[in-house]
Amino acid sequence: MKDCCSDGNNGEYDIAVVGAGSAGFSAAITAAEAGARVAIIGHGTIGGTCVNVGCVPSKALIRAMEAAHSGAAARRFAGVSVASRVDDWPAVQAQKDALVSGLRDKKYEALLPEYENIDYIETKAPARLVEGGVAFDGRAIRAAKIIIATGSSSSIPPIPGIENVQTLDSTSALELDRLPESMVVIGGGVIGCELGQMFARAGVHVTICCRTRLIPEAEPEISAALQASFEAEGITVCSGVGYQRIEQSSSGVQLYCETNGGTHVVTAQGVLIAAGRNPNTQHLGLGDLGVDTDARGGILVDEQMRSSNQSIYAAGDVTGRDQYVYMAAYGAKLAAKHATAQTVKPYDNRAMPWVVFSDPQVAGVGFTAAAAEAAGYDVKTSIAPLNQVPRALAAADTRGLIKLVADRKTDELLGAQIMAPEGADSIQTLVLALKFGMTTKELGDTIFPYLTTVEGFKLAAQGFDKDVTKLSCCAG
Q: Residue 200: left if φ>0, alpha if ψ -120 to 50, beta else—which one?
């Protein structure tokens, strides 16, 4: 790695990027391609959350446990019997770690020599912003513009007694070298659902507890269907609970929850906290430089990713919004282009897809029905259960549904959600439909390949005006 003060530039940079994850590298590369002299200031493992402790390792383990679960899934087919199980968890972890290490090298470490005008500076302690630059480890560099991409960290919910309990977060859970017999997951959002099901399929008895419902940002029909699917696999779901206290016992933990039926005690060997994430801004000294934040510490930015200090930008989880790695990279690219005086379109998340890598997968884009109504639209909806989709019938897997939201006055599509085995890939069709302003009639008139999951969107679109159960195969 280059040392910032020994390469002839005397610690002077056009752009300083604080954070060496997906957003940080996206910003640095974009700025470097525009001819800027760039410093990436990284604290911790290069590559950030996604490749090291987030998206990549979790999806690798999720896919592995889907394979382990395939024996049970095969029972849906008459005359088919398949046995599969997890018999060497350390080997599973080793394969995951090799994948992470390889991608970290290829997509981060090995990229640095390709950009002569990028210096990577690894710090022992978190960096702090100062007037005209960034300070770290007793020294400082000067930069005309700064882009903050320090990410986020797991949030600890205010449950009495939690400070005295040994807990796992999404990082430490993915590093377990031994599986517990039982686990309670606090939080029913994306991480709680993904990791909860993954551990259940690995043989852990899992209970998921959440204050409202699974995936609260999803349509209520989707949440209910996902809960039913989880419970059919043996996962216990306690939704709509209030947390009274949590205690450490000789055998694990006891979580006391308030339900409609009174107090319910969940006992488990381990506890995974999956109750959201907080922006990593506490060490940056933002207040001294007039950088405004929200109540959770997220940096407030405009449509060009500028903070209230016009020389300082922010992108990714540190802004507290749209906490997906692809949105972090997208926002960072906008920030870098604007910081290097390029013309850029404003940040636009209207057609932002989101995915939950459960099984079946849950994915969505655009407005929910409730959000569209709150925005003033006259809303109409259409729901297509998977038992109306030929692909699902042929696969003997009708867990899930599709829901479309549209403007009754104009017929324009406003949003879509899907719960289906191929939901993650299928949602991109609706991303494009929303991006280019398609109507439900146009979607219903579009040709889709038969016996695909994505064909379900055509059926759901046709369902606004007709009873699709009365159509023949490929009709319409």
A: alpha
